[in-house]
């Protein structure tokens, strides 16, 4: 192992998106310290600029393929696409909360957000176990703090659960990594694959693989490692929940796509099967439990678990097209879920509750937001012509082509079940009148939040009607 | 960006802008829409010149790919589409200018122009189509905007009913078209036109698919027996009737047949069907037009009849003649509609027996209407004569003598009902007081009439023997026009003059005894009631459909809902059971995670056969 780095030969271009985020997170943190209270509200805009700048630089290196720092950090199209999705969704969150009270210092909030984004981006580019672990911790540690930032009993409880379970999963993950290092003496994904090739499979390798599945499965909230998700989605401040629902999972999926086919290539049938089992468990548990939820964010939390299930179909298929379908579906899901959370945020900002009954008469209070929410729900179910339909079409088609027809059937049946609870939301908004005596006045929404929701709605429609707009970019 | 896509995108853009700002801008919306159309029209002329110079363009984008199945979207520019581009954009442009006067003061004028723009865009998309998926999409697109525009004054019950009727009846034909598409995809494995046309499909299969496509055309082009929606569609604003229900959308069916001509030729039986349906339509609609008393209804039936002629031409193998008639008709029929609009605007009535003697009060309208009438009746050198004559000559030359005779009879009827209209409306003395304050329409309305009048006078000449049938040579390489048949020309010309003569005797003099057309006559009743087609559909289709719908409702409420609710209840119970796992205790959660890990470990080791 070469432990020295020739700094002059590092292709810094490959790291520009990360460097920009790092720079801005420090600027925002310093802003919290040095800016006067009245000018701190600018920090949201600064964060947005940073995210957009990072996105632009990412576009500049879109087709770059590079491995830097002795194989620690690698850039490829998969990583770039997932980073782009992360940056776009996070930018939409930041845009949405520009005029919203984030319950803590703006500088703290936005810098923690950026640190978490940075960790996720490094996760997406990890080509080494050590790098992966550090990046993962960098992703989750700010999330724990963000979750607790509401300082209510519920928020603290959710954060504590998130933290404890996160630690347990990190420990298991680290143990799995140690086993792998013990078996091969390597930490680099490609080097591990090289060492394992041609040798008989040892049970310790399988154990190591599964421990890593647990660690990353926790990140993406797959059943049975999902328990934190509903509590956190419900308990954390809504801006945080919006961020957690969409972006950070990109890191988990990117890590799985990079690590498993390469380092665990020799036990591919095992992990493909494991992901199929987790897919079914996540879909079934997520959708069935969501049916009986009355708190909208908790409902969305279980819906997120179910969608992790759909996404895992792409991993169970274990083909290049399967991963590409996963990425497309990830974008489609993130947009709709994020949109739904932002709509909940818009309601909460005007003092409405977050239970299903609080959505009664929403279509008259805010017709455009109700329309957007209905479209997000339809997209999550997978109704054409919205993006969710195309996403599911590609995923399930890959399952069918890889002789996993049963998995596709389970997926479709689950989509049917999910109709039950998504439609409840739409029914509440359009058909149920608010309780008597309550005046139905037009609801005011802050302009940035409204803009963010409208952008997401447009994207959900465009991706459904013209998926090639995105597919040609990711070269699916 | 290619100029061909700009032709298409400008009206789309105008639609998007007007949907947002139309309400705010009011009448100023017209400038956006008309401006877009001016540029599209100019570019269409350029495209036509390009094709006349021997050019040919095909651009394709991939719209969605699902495995090996690719949905493409394309812009095909050849002689047929170039001609249609020009026709669609010029008529749309003139109609939009005319509407500026006609729709003056309407509250929803922004929406009106938005719809006109998007209708035009859909029509252009249809014309451009190099594949059947796109044509089908655009086909439905024009249907939707036709629906919206027929029902533009939806406060009027009859208008919204007419819009629904048009939508449903054409949908009936589209059913056939849709089945045809699926069948074609199964047989040919592609829906790209050039690939389909290069194949050698079995004759019977090709004929079946072609006839199914023709079903769609029957609906859209208001052919017998699905013609019943077009007269009702006259509830829309008159400029809409001029654009959609005379020149463009109703011609889409004819265009579909013309575009798919190689497919029809693969199964020649289908062409016989086209010819027969076209002839029945031409003759039947002309007879109904004899008794109609609403100025727009007369023109509507004449449109149906002329579309029948086009189908007849295509069916008997006179491909170029059919397309030629489409083109000339697209000039003189909007002229007649806009002229009728000008008259309605002046007298505030559509009943021809409320009018009379308007010729003196509305000089431009009456002269241009007369030009349109002469073109429709088929008097040389007006546009309609040359194209109609080509169709008749084609029918004669191909040995379809019965069709030829009915074609000639229809010429007689056409001349009669056209001049019945002209004599009653523009000549003689005013009837009643509707026309007391009639005066010529403003320039914004009369200018389009003059321009269309010019084309109604001259457009036919480019396909006449004087120009060596230049049009036919341009549009149909390989389908060369027949040598001019002067016998047919003379016959149709004389017959048309006889028709005009009868109309003159009946309505301008008292030479014909009034009992020639007695109102108790069986035939008269049959015609006034439009062969009882609407009644037939009511009892044969609508009443049984309602009965089936009620039965289906009962089944749905009792059986289907019961099953669905049962499944939902079971899922809910499972969900409630699973919910108890979420205890809230971190210790439990950690335990579940470890149990998960162990289960997966055992399963993996078994799968890999390690123990």
Automatic annotation (TrEMBL), chain A:
One example of a Gene Ontology biological process annotation: ATP synthesis coupled electron transport
Keyword Translocase: yes
Superkingdom assignment: Bacteria
Record's bilayer topology term: Multi-pass membrane protein
GO cellular component: endomembrane system; plasma membrane
Keyword Transmembrane helix carried by entry: yes
Protein location: Cell membrane; Endomembrane system; Membrane
Domain (NADH:quinone oxidoreductase/Mrp antiporter transmembrane) ranges: 126-418
Pfam family, one: Proton_antipo_M
Broadest EC class assigned to this enzyme: translocase
Main subcellular location: membrane
Record-listed E.C. numbers: 7.1.1.-
Molecular function terms, GO-annotated: NADH dehydrogenase (quinone) (non-electrogenic) activity; NADH dehydrogenase (ubiquinone) activity; quinone binding
Signal peptide: none
Listed transmembrane segments: 12-35, 42-62, 82-100, 107-124, 130-147, 159-184, 204-228, 240-264, 270-292, 299-321, 327-348, 369-389, 404-424, 445-466
Reactions that this protein is recorded to catalyse: a quinone + NADH + 5 H(+)(in) = a quinol + NAD(+) + 4 H(+)(out)
Alphabetic keyword roster: Cell membrane, Membrane, NAD, Quinone, Translocase, Transmembrane, Transmembrane helix, Transport
SUBUNIT field: NDH-1 is composed of 14 different subunits. Subunits NuoA, H, J, K, L, M, N constitute the membrane sector of the complex.
Described function: NDH-1 shuttles electrons from NADH, via FMN and iron-sulfur (Fe-S) centers, to quinones in the respiratory chain. The immediate electron acceptor for the enzyme in this species is believed to be a menaquinone. Couples the redox reaction to proton translocation (for every two electrons transferred, four hydrogen ions are translocated across the cytoplasmic membrane), and thus conserves the redox energy in a proton gradient.
PANTHER family cross-referenced by the UniProt entry: NADH DEHYDROGENASE
Family: Belongs to the complex I subunit 2 family.
Record protein name field: NADH-quinone oxidoreductase subunit N
Species this protein is from: Candidatus Aquicultor secundus
